[in-house]
Design goal:
heterodimer; A: about 170 residues; alpha+beta; Alpha-Beta Plaits; three-stranded antiparallel sheet; 5 helices; about 15% strand; B: about 425 residues; mainly alpha; two-stranded antiparallel sheet; 15 helices
Chain lengths: ~170, ~425
Amino acid sequence: MGIKIVPRYGKSLKDRLYLPAIFGGMKTTISHFTKNLIDTSNIKTECYPEMQPNDITDRYRGVHRLTHREDDSVRCVACFMCATACPADCIFIEAVERTDGMAEKMPAKFSIDLLECVFCGGCVEACPCDAIRMDTGIFTFIAEKREDFVLNKEQLLNNTARKEEN
Amino acid sequence: MNIILISVVIVNIILALLFSLGAAPILVWVERRVAGFIQDRLGPNRCNIAGFRLGGLIQSFADMLKLVFKEDFRAGNIKERFIFRIAPVIVFVSAFLSFMVMPFADDLVIGTQTFIMQGLPLDFGVLWFLALAGLSVYGIILGGWSSNNKYSLLGSVRAGAQVISYEVSMTLALVSLLITYGSIHLVDIVNFQSGLIFGFIPAWGIIMQPVAAIIFIITSFAEANRTPFDIAEGESEIVGGYHTEYSAMKFGLFFVGEYVAMSASSALMVTLFFGGYNIPWVGTDTLKEHFDIVMIAIIVLLPLLSYKFGGWILKNNVWPKADDKRNNESKWLIRILVMMNIFVVLLLGSFLFFGVSATTTNIAVAIMQVATFAIKLLLMNFVFVWVRWTLPRFRYDQLQDLGWKVLLPISIANIFVTAIAIVAFGA
């Protein structure tokens, strides 16, 4: 059992003068300043949104996409499971009868309002036929009008997976 | 009254406007960019006019435009409308006027006439500055009181107490300085500093009177309400301090006034302690005698420095998106730089070739001194910004302790020591 003696600072003449400590601090800040001024690439700030981060994991839930069948037609059968599961009520589907024999129904319109979406992944969990996924890796979606944030069926079908499926 | 007199006066007023009012947007930009670089961030760099960003300077103009066009809101419980309205004007005007006595260059001789190169040709500059710097706190006190708001009142009370305690030490530090210089005319003070000590050290105030210099620098930080003495604003403690209730251009006047006051303090510091418009080791007379050598030096040095600067622009002024119009800026900046170089070199070359008259030499020397003053002013303003982003804010009692128990005794002791030295060894 030793007694730990904690040194007390602030009583020496150097500490009480304040100025040496102030100059020390100013030296630190000026070294950062000159380093960054001489070469701004030392700064790790990324010019978002022109530069997008590239260290997103594969499991990150990004913007949705609608998957395709083998013949590139839409896999969705318009069962409304995703719209029912959605806690934010941001999925809007209009169903029509499917005539090519693949399934009974298909969506005529399938739109997702990204301003409403909470990116919970509930739609992906609910989908019985793996028609909607959130693996595009688009973690930020930029638009200039509110209307542009509502993705329609074509846009969702054109979204691709960030990584090739194994 | 003649044309030369009028034109010199106009040039002086324009220079004073440039250094004080024109400096405000530049200083806001410097503050934000330096803060960014010190904290390893970028700071404002996005705003542009047709791709021209000037390193983010355009952001300041955008901010000023925003302040001008914002709604001028006044809360219903503010009863003292006139005082509320006049308070930012007091702050701004006193900061602005206190800049007017700073000498930009040595007395200009054109023909038989001599002009004092100041915004206002007064020969009691130091007193004028002290009077107006003391006045500016009235704006803060009145603004905080008339806002009818506890936080604002606290801010103004703090500002009042702080200025009272620091003005004393500031003035006493100045007294010891004036004993050394033997004049209150700022031009005399600067010319005193053009000499050399022991033949090789410039006789600047900071070397003649280091203690007074440190005290004056500390107190003028307090006078300009800058960190570490910005307890009047204290946004982490009392919302916004005295300008909590202000919006739009009324706030803008406080904001610009702070920067003008900072610039005025820097100008006085440069004038009193850092040789004013003097180029180190080269006095006004030396410049006039050896003007040919000076011109040759400029012709050689300017392209070299411009080359370095151009390389820096090309390396750092890039926008990550390749097809962005902001990427065209560097090209144009380099062109402007080359044009300026060609112009200056041709002008000085023709001077060298054809010889110069005495008046031209005088004017050219004045221009060089104005440039020197501007560079020193900018560096001093940089020190203000640098300190702001290094030090935390003082606590209120620490501030009063420092003012009354440390700075005041030291400045009084300094007066005695200086006076004894002057009496013993002669001026």
